[in-house]
């Protein structure tokens, strides 16, 4: 952390920098969106650049625990190193939750969205069957 930046401030900076990067990645690579035009790699690269321009003077802009860990191993400085693990974890998880539950929910039913927590990714299915007693085939859309 830079001079004059305490661990709490550094944690907040890392959370915000990681949040904006993960939100950009999720929004530009979501296959369900048909309104995205342009280059996803360019958008993600600009997001990384923005994060670094805003945070590098304060925390060195870790936004990736592996990158921060490598630097800490080489320099032998692990003071406040937890900031560079906890910040990206909180920022990335909150971006994923906000994107999946608020900005672009996969379905309108809250119980279906909550199934992700217990059974992994839930896909939307087409149900093919003539009546309620017939066998139902489930195929991904």
Automatic annotation (TrEMBL):
Keyword line: Glycoprotein, Membrane, Repeat, Transmembrane, Transmembrane helix, Transport
Xref: Pfam families: MIP
One example of a Gene Ontology biological process annotation: hyperosmotic response
Membrane topology: Multi-pass membrane protein
Locations listed in the record: Membrane
Superkingdom in the source lineage: Eukaryota
Transmembrane segments: 6-28, 40-60, 82-104
An example molecular function term from Gene Ontology annotations: ammonium channel activity
GO CC, alphabetical: membrane
Matches recorded under InterPro entries: Aquaporin-like, Aquaporin_1, Aquaporin_transptr, MIP
PANTHER family: AQUAPORIN TRANSPORTER, AQUAPORIN-1
Family listed: Belongs to the MIP/aquaporin (TC 1.A.8) family.
Stated name of the protein: AQP1 protein
Gene: Aqp1
């Amino acid at each position: 952390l830079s001079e004059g930046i305490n661990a709490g401030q550094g944690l907040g900076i890392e959370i915000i920098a990681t949040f904006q990067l993960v939100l950009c990645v999720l929004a530009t690579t979501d296959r369900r969106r048909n309104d995205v035009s342009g280059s996803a790699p360019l958008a993600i690269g600009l997001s990384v650049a923005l994060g670094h321009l805003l945070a590098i003077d304060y925390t060195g802009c870790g936004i990736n625990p592996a990158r921060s860990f490598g630097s800490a191993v080489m320099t032998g400085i692990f003071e406040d190193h937890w900031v560079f693990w906890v910040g990206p974890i909180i920022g990335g998880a909150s971006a994923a939750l906000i994107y999946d539950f608020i900005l672009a929910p996969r379905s309108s039913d809250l119980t279906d969205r909550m199934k992700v927590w217990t059974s992994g990714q839930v896909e939307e299915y087409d149900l093919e069957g003539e009546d309620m007693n017939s066998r139902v085939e489930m195929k991904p859309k």
